[in-house]
């Protein structure tokens, strides 16, 4: 990458998608955290704001690109405040309501990943809430674990997202949202 344009939108390459899905990447934690945030929708300026705590974001993006984990696609410039492609984003978890049909449609637009069941998704989400919030997140975990449908599950993880954002900041909440998005259960 010769120059990092602020409106450039990176997406995960095939290698990046495989690394993201495997959870056994061998990437340094700062690089893995940034790779999680790369979604083909956020411009570099937004990534820099979200991941500022990880260090020199421009340098980390350059390393991810040089190592083949991310790529800039043709027409990947995003208009300010607009998503470059449809799909579920961490902002969806902050929205007040979504229908089960809309959530299912968004799942179809996501990059291929192993489909998991609702019980597996609940378990993963509860583990992530516990890892992020510790005992403070117990009530959220109970809500997530007791969800019986995709609609209930989505409402529970939206609530968890809001609490995480309030307590730990938007970067941590975005990472949580991306992990949940990557593991949405089949409708």
Folded structure, characterized:
By secondary structure, the protein is mainly alpha-helical. The protein folds into two domains: 10-72, no CATH class; 90-182, no CATH class. The chain is 57% helix and 3% strand. The chain is built from ten helices and two strands; from the N terminus they run E-H-H-H-H-E-H-H-H-H-H-H. The chain has helices at residues 14-22, 29-37, 44-50, 57-66, 90-94, 100-109, 118-133, 138-145, 150-168, 170-182, and strands at 10-12, 70-72. Strands 1-2 form a two-stranded antiparallel ribbon. Helix 7 runs antiparallel to helix 10 (170-182). Residues 74-113 have low confidence and may be disordered.
Secondary structure: number of strands:
2
Based on CA atoms alone, the radius of gyration comes out at 16 Å
Distance between the termini: 40 Å
Helical fraction equals 55-70%
Low-confidence stretches: 74-113
The protein's oligomeric status is: single chain
- Percent of residues in beta strands? under 5%
Give the topology string: H per helix, E per strand: EHHHHEHHHHHH
Structural class of the secondary structure composition? mainly alpha
Mean pLDDT: 75
- In order across it, which strands form the biggest sheet? 1-2
Major β-sheet, in short?
A: 2 strands, antiparallel
């Amino acid at each position: 990458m010769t120059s990092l344009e602020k409106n450039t939108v990176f997406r995960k390459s095939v290698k990046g998608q495989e690394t993201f899905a495997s959870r056994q990447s061998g990437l340094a934690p700062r690089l893995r955290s940034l790779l999680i945030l790369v979604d083909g929708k956020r411009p570099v300026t937004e990534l820099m704001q979200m991941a500022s705590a990880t260090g020199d974001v421009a340098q980390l993006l350059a390393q991810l690109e040089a190592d083949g984990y991310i790529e800039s696609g043709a027409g990947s410039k995003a208009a300010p405040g607009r998503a470059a492609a449809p799909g579920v984003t961490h902002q969806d978890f902050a929205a007040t309501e979504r229908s089960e049909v809309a959530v299912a449609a968004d799942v179809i637009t996501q990059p291929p990943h192993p489909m998991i069941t609702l019980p597996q998704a609940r378990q993963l989400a509860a583990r992530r809430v516990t890892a992020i919030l510790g005992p403070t997140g117990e009530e959220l975990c109970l809500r997530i674990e007791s969800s019986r449908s995709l609609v209930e599950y989505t409402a529970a993880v939206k609530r968890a997202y809001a609490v995480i954002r309030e307590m730990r900041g938007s970067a941590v909440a975005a990472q949580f949202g991306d992990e949940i998005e990557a593991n949405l259960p089949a409708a």
